[in-house]
Amino acid sequence: MEENISKEIILTQEGYDKLEEELELLKTTRRKEVAERLKVAISFGDLSENAEYDEAKKEQAALEERIMKLEHMTRVAVIIDEDSVDLDVVTIGSVVKIFDYDFDEEVEYTIVGSAEADPYSFKISNESPVGKALLGRQKGEDVEVTVPDGIIKLKILDITR
């Protein structure tokens, strides 16, 4: 068995709701669409040389794999109570305003579980180098983070939720 099969997945309520929405869409709308594509492809006849059929079967397999993954994620999900996020230290669910000395700028990140991470939306994983380095730290602390490009220096300006 794979190691992460039983690993809990930490999510905010928003992240959990997004997984549930995607799962519902895939199980209803997308399954019907793929089944219809298969039906049409089968109607073309000889399946041994039917590219449409092969493509629809691949899409169906990928769809079912994603559904299984989402079902697993929602089953093992641990939803963090954002109202109980400790504002004294950085935890999962914290919104952390930091000053990046290297770029001479302030940035605000939300620390989330890895399944919910989206750097483009400033949601960073608790398992990422920056997320890991910020966890457990307090407002006013300087933090050095080892990243692929070297070491970056950050200062925690504020912790909110």
Automatic annotation (TrEMBL):
Residues 16-73 form a coiled coil. GO terms for biological process: DNA-templated transcription elongation; regulation of DNA-templated transcription elongation. SUPFAM superfamilies: FKBP-like, GreA transcript cleavage protein, N-terminal domain. PROSITE patterns: GREAB_1, GREAB_2. Keywords: Coiled coil, DNA-binding, Elongation factor, Protein biosynthesis, Transcription, Transcription regulation. Pfam families: GreA_GreB (PF01272), GreA_GreB_N (PF03449). InterPro entries: GreA/GreB_C_sf (IPR036953), TF_GreA/GreB_CS (IPR018151), Tscrpt_elong_fac_GreA (IPR006359), Tscrpt_elong_fac_GreA/B (IPR028624), Tscrpt_elong_fac_GreA/B_C (IPR001437), Tscrpt_elong_fac_GreA/B_fam (IPR023459), Tscrpt_elong_fac_GreA/B_N (IPR022691), Tscrpt_elong_fac_GreA/B_N_sf (IPR036805). One of its GO terms (molecular function) is DNA binding. Transmembrane segments: none annotated. It comes from the Bacteria. Residues 9-79 form the Transcription elongation factor GreA/GreB N-terminal domain. Residues 88-160 form the Transcription elongation factor GreA/GreB C-terminal domain. Belongs to the GreA/GreB family. Necessary for efficient RNA polymerase transcription elongation past template-encoded arresting sites. The arresting sites in DNA have the property of trapping a certain fraction of elongating RNA polymerases that pass through, resulting in locked ternary complexes. Cleavage of the nascent transcript by cleavage factors such as GreA or GreB allows the resumption of elongation from the new 3'terminus. GreA releases sequences of 2 to 3 nucleotides. This is Transcription elongation factor GreA. It comes from Peptostreptococcus russellii. The lineage of its organism: Bacteria, Bacillati, Bacillota, Clostridia, Peptostreptococcales. The gene is greA.
